[in-house]
Design goal:
- The protein has 8 helices and 8 strands; from the N terminus they run H-H-H-E-E-H-E-H-E-H-E-E-E-H-E-H.
- It is α+β, with helices and mostly antiparallel strands and about 220 residues long.
- Strand 6 and strand 7 form a beta hairpin.
- The two termini are about 35 Å apart.
């Protein structure tokens, strides 16, 4: 509805209407129903820092192979704790549009030091992923900036975990940024569902291939 587009604004934030995103469908009523209730609550509630104390925000929406965490919540270090349990010999692949939390950076370096191979595809702008993040992480893991050939912003936010025992994916609205981890209303989904994991693996390889093609063209 923002026609005509403001070229100055697009130069700063990118074309959000054509952003390089991925939508996944969840159709299990055990997940959909409580998520719908949460959405309605977000639109009707009075918001403030006290929300992380509410039991409804600290619950976990679960099925046999999937868990959804709502934010803000009291225990906010779910991603860091999950990463720190990944055993040596595993592979972590992270597609991140925002990364500026120093604690997450320290966690990734600690995990890499234990013998976990880590690969990151990060948004190309330093506004979302500052240069100091790249400099710190390059010492410990593979870090590449994702530049779409058409300059479209990348909003992917997922982590693929491959251990000798299983495959998992973490995804949702949650960024690895200070505001997202500690302030914003966010969703984090953790799943070992094979269809979901395979969908995100395809996405990862598509992004890698597109990046490789753009570098060789």
């Amino acid at each position: 509805g923002n026609e005509p587009e403001d070229p100055n604004l697009l130069a700063i934030i990118g074309d959000q209407d054509r952003g390089h995103n991925l939508l996944l469908e969840l159709n299990d009523p055990r997940l959909v129903s409580p998520l719908r209730q949460h959405l309605l609550h977000l639109h009707s509630a009075v918001h403030g820092p006290w929300e992380r104390l509410r039991p409804s925000y600290n619950r976990v929406i679960r099925t046999e192979d999937t868990a959804i965490y709502l934010f803000p919540r009291l225990r906010r270090n779910i991603i860091a704790k999950k990463l720190l349990t990944v055993p040596s010999g595993s592979v972590l692949r992270l597609a991140v549009s925002h990364l500026n939390d120093r604690k997450i950076g320290a966690t990734l370096r600690a995990v890499a030091a234990r013998g976990v191979r880590i690969e990151i595809l990060a948004h190309d702008t330093e506004r979302r992923v500052p240069q100091w993040v790249e400099e710190q992480l390059l010492e410990s893991l593979t870090f590449r900036r994702y530049r779409h050939p058409q300059g479209l912003p990348m909003h992917n936010k997922f982590i693929l975990i491959h251990t000798p025992q299983q495959r998992e994916v973490l995804l949702g609205s949650m960024n690895l940024s200070v505001r997202s981890l500690y302030v914003n209303h966010e969703l984090l989904l953790v799943s070992s569902n094979p269809l979901l994991v395979e969908a995100m693996e395809r996405r990862w390889h598509d992004m890698q291939n597109l990046l490789d093609e753009s570098m060789t063209s």
